[in-house]
């Protein structure tokens, strides 16, 4: 099936088409943004936001232009917005408590919960999850361990519902790749 058919199905709300388009264009948009930002986290955040906006506005896509060109244009605008936000929040003070919290997030040592899960034969899966970036770990934890709805996750992390869906989709894809590599 050609790209146009997937775009048409996505316009109708077909989740398989969305997933196909995400998988098909993720590396191109991410690679483009990585060159521009020279920062993996920013490039990934911009790419997630790009697909979120694209899927929300897919009805306005003009097929006279290439789909990847449309995505790149959205990504450029998201990047500009991010730069504006960073510029306005450049001089925020970080307290010792916030610094300590950030340090604890990066800690890969197993917690008491991790040990309990280990006893329940889920330790291997948890180790794979810990290989994901922290924001992917968070959405997996909230969705599958705390059994929160997409809307509850959206409210908790303060991001739009479409971002949560894309982050979860991407987290599951990356987790599947990690599991496949380790077998």
UniProtKB/TrEMBL annotation:
Domain RNA polymerase sigma-70 region residues, every copy: 22-87
Domain RNA polymerase sigma factor 70 region 4 type: 124-175
Gene Ontology terms, MF aspect: DNA binding; sigma factor activity
Keywords: DNA-binding, Sigma factor, Transcription, Transcription regulation
BP terms from Gene Ontology: DNA-templated transcription initiation
Annotated InterPro entries: RNA_pol_sigma-70-like, RNA_pol_sigma-70_dom, RNA_pol_sigma70_r2, RNA_pol_sigma70_r4_t2, RNA_pol_sigma_r2, RNA_pol_sigma_r3/r4-like, WH-like_DNA-bd_sf
Family that this chain belongs to: Belongs to the sigma-70 factor family. ECF subfamily.
PANTHER family hit by this protein: RNA POLYMERASE ECF-TYPE SIGMA FACTO, RNA POLYMERASE SIGMA FACTOR HI_1459-RELATED
Protein's name according to its UniProt entry: RNA polymerase subunit sigma-70
């Amino acid at each position: 099936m050609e790209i146009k058919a997937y775009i048409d199905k996505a316009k109708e709300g077909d989740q398989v088409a969305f997933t196909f388009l995400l998988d098909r264009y993720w590396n191109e948009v991410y690679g483009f943004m990585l060159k521009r930002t020279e920062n993996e986290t920013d490039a990934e955040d911009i790419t997630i936001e790009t697909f979120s906006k694209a899927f929300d506005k897919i009805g306005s896509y003009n097929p006279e232009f290439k789909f990847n060109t449309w995505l790149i244009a959205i990504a450029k605008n998201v990047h500009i917005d991010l730069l504006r936000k960073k510029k306005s929040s450049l001089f925020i003070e970080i307290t010792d408590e916030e610094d300590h919290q950030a340090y604890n997030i990066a800690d890969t040592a197993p917690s008491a919960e991790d040990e309990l899960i280990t006893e329940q034969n889920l330790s291997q899966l948890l180790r794979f999850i810990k290989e994901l970036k922290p924001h992917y770990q968070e959405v997996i934890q909230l969705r599958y361990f705390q059994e929160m709805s997409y809307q509850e996750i959206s409210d908790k992390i303060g991001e739009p519902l479409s971002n949560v869906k894309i982050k979860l989709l991407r987290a599951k894809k990356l987790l599947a790749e990690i599991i496949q590599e380790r077998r």
